[in-house]
Amino acid sequence: MNKLLIIIKREYLSKVKKKSFFVLTILGPILMSLLIVLPVVLKENVSKTYTVMVVDSTPKTVINGDTIAFFDGKFVSNEKVIYSYGKDIEKAQNMLRNDEVDMVLEIVKSNDKVPIKTFSYFADNEPSLEAKEDVQQQVKQIFKNSVLMVNYDMSKEDIAIVNDPQIESYITDIRTGERSNSEMKMVLGAILGIMIYFFLFFFGGQIMRSVGEEKTSRIVEVLVSSVKSIYLLFGKIIAVALVGLTQLGLWIVLTLLLMGGLKVAQPDWFAVQPQEKIELNERVFTANKIDTLNIDTSPANEAIQELQSINFPLILSMFLVYFLLGYLLYGTLFGAVGSLLDEDSDASQFSLPITVPLIFAIVCLPMIMQDPSSSLSQWLSIIPFTSPMIMLVRIPYGVAVWQIVVSVVLLILTVIASLFVATKIYRSGILMYGKQVKYKDLFKWIKKKEN
Amino acid sequence: MNTILEVKNVTKAYETKVALDDVSLQVEKGCVFGLLGPNGAGKTTLIRMINQITKPDKGEILFNGEPLKEKHIQHVGYLPEERGLYKKMKVGEEALYLARLKGMSSTQARKSLDYWFEKFSISDWYNKKVQELSKGMQQKVQFITTVMHSPQLLIFDEPFSGFDPLNADLLKNEILELRDKGATIIFSTHNMESVEQICDNIVLINSSHKVLEGSVKEVKQRFKKGEFELIINSEFSNDLLTDGVELLGEKSENDTSIIRLKIEKGKNADLLSHILKTTDIISYKEILPSMNEIFIQTIKSTK
């Protein structure tokens, strides 16, 4: 155990002292700060006013003899979006094709819990996140208010639904028929999936190179005469994970420092945000009481409100679970491949089967985002080699508990199997020189009880 | 207890071939033990088993009379034939790291490092990276990492390869000094000259079998062919020879002749008294076979 700690310490320090670690540590926060600051800065300059034609296809309700439309004529134009109204969806779509409007919004009745759905169409350029969110935000608000006009006497459950209506919305490019969706959930899922992909590749590659370096420099023979080979592999896997955590921690701290510095240097970039937050909190508070119509057009507010509807504790814990298990799975396998590296022969034939599922998952990511509940999505989120990435894309949308359980259990079993297989390949592989290893050999090594 | 290491009927097979077949040997405490054999004979396999890198399929290995266990790792030092160090690590840190993996505490390791670095006068290398050193310098560092933890048993696999004659001599003296201080040394090599110089006992392994063992002196005696070298103070003539003596070669220079003879057992006295009647004998000695000859002869005969 003591020796394992000594190994972890060396591996950790040797990686932290590398130049690449230093460079990444510096570059990371700069990139992150840019990502945070740029949209704020650019927003000032590139703001376009979108014209949206609303077609309310929901049935009209009669109250006290008055015929009342649910949505028609109720949107409030502002500096971001100018609303107009149409009766006929075909006509509206033709106008869209002729560039007379930027976007068409059709609201239809559905038989779901929330009894409406929205279909948005755009032509040449996809509406900005701001415009889309303004539309969605207003749809929600108008829905709440209209429901209240029709029915004051609701059950608690209905109040909850009306309070935070999860209105299904579809955004389609009218020329290509392609569906677009840039909801926060989707962005969040994709970011998490890509982060896991990046971490697995990056850290797995580090483990592989580090094992290969020990083998080709021949120091491994001395090392295994001092410690069990399994300690060497696990020491590396643990150390690389710690290096990753250190890097992440440094990124967060440095980004906060950098942002703090920018705030002092360029206060106007940040001046808007705290104000908006306060407004938002007030608005959310009042909206929760189903108060009067109070439209706030700030995209940040909308984004944050959407974020509130996402189950963060679940997502964060799932991220950690899948990251840890995925890392163990790919880390041990990359370590085993590293033990097959030799000066004369490259191990690409062995690293390929490991990288293919990773790349496959990332290639499928757009499809998963399009339809997170398709059977492809479900399968890929359960199959252990792709599940760490794909399940995270799906989780913000809500996934059946049994699917998560099956996926995690399968992943754990696979991790155990890969630990078993990888350590056996590793302990034979590191001492094998000058001979082209074949898959046949690997199976023999795995079958061997002892070295 | 005079045996530090006992290998008992050890067999080890790999997928494609048998590396060691029922090999037994004993290594006496405080000796330099030559583990000889051509490439692929199974020497490395045996060494790896002593280092607990691999385990025998059959048979057992005893260290100080106990079956080999993890706790014995710290008593063994191993310098493999293919050497290597972390190239980007600093010399001092690397030596400390390897010593600690052998079970030394930080302070012990530091003390030992100071002793050895001073002894090899390389203290100013401490902060140099390994890749900045020449190959010979790296070998020195590697040697130090092998002996730093004062192991009872040292295993050197071709230790002289890559050393220039000066450093090889230095290394040889270090090895003998370690032996004199009580360490036991297993010395695996093809270099038969160095075997004669430093080994006390040897084992010769060929094609996974032990084919020869004994002390260097005893083995040489066993392989002697009754050949003698005689130097006399006159010109050589066939009249000098007696019955049971065969002339192998002679060389005369001025008034001295060097004669190589093969003499049957028990005929020495006759020959010498016969020669002494006519001339003076400057020297007379038995020619023992070199380890090199014994090596080649044994390998060929067991093929």
Helix content of chain A: 55-70%
The overall average pLDDT of chain B, rounded, is 89
User: How many strands appear in the DSSP assignment of chain A?
Assistant: 8
Q: Helices and strands of chain A, in N-to-C order?
A: HHEEEEHEEHHEEHHHHHHHHHHH
pLDDT averaged over residues of chain A: 79
Strand content of chain A: 5-15%
Q: Class of the largest domain in chain B, according to the CATH hierarchy?
A: Alpha Beta
> At the fourth CATH level, what is the homologous superfamily of the largest domain in chain B?
P-loop containing nucleotide triphosphate hydrolases
What is the count of structural domains of chain A? Answer: 2
Task: Tell me briefly what this model is.
The complex is a heterodimer of chains A (451) and B (303). Chain A has 451 residues and is of the alpha/beta class.
Fill in the keyword field for this structure.
heterodimer, A: 451 residues, alpha/beta, abc type-2 transporter like fold, 2 domains, 6-stranded mixed beta sheet, two-stranded antiparallel ribbon, 16 helices, elongated, B: 303 residues, Rossmann fold, Alpha-Beta Plaits, 4-stranded antiparallel beta sheet, 9 helices, 33% helix, 31% strand
Can you give a write-up of this model?
The complex is a heterodimer of chains A (451) and B (303). Chain A has 2 domains: 2-36 and 187-266 and 308-447, no CATH class; 48-182, abc type-2 transporter like domain (abc type-2 transporter like fold, 3-Layer(aba) Sandwich). In chain A, helix 8 (229-265) packs across helix 11 (312-338). In chain A, a hairpin with a 5-residue loop joins strand 7 and strand 8. The two termini of chain A are 21 Å apart. A 6-stranded mixed sheet of chain A has the order 4-1-5-6-7-8, sandwiched between helices. Chain A has a two-stranded antiparallel ribbon with strand order 2-3. Chain A is α/β, with parallel strands linked by helices and 451 residues long. Chain A has helices spanning 2-16, 19-45, 89-97, 129-150, 156-163, 184-216, 219-224, 229-265, 267-288, 299-308, 312-338, 348-370, 375-382, 387-394, 401-429, 439-447; strands at residues 50-56, 61-63, 66-68, 81-86, 103-109, 116-122, 168-173, 179-180. By secondary structure, chain B is an alpha/beta fold. Chain B folds into 2 domains: 3-221, Rossmann fold; 225-287, Alpha-Beta Plaits (2-Layer Sandwich), CATH 3.30.70. Chain B is built from 9 helices and 14 strands. In chain B, the strands form 3 sheets. In chain B, strands 6-7-8-3-9-10 form a 6-stranded mixed sheet, sandwiched between helices. A 4-stranded antiparallel sheet of chain B has the order 2-1-4-5, covered by helices on one side. Chain B has a 4-stranded antiparallel sheet with strand order 12-13-11-14, covered by helices on one side. In chain B, a hairpin with a 2-residue loop joins strand 12 and strand 13 (256-263). The longest helix of chain B has 16 residues, at 165-180. Chain A binds chain B through residues 3, 6-7, 10, 14, 213-214, 217-229, 431, 433, 441, 444, 450-451, and chain B through 15, 48, 51-55, 70, 73, 76, 78, 80, 82-89, 97-98, 100-103, 145-146.
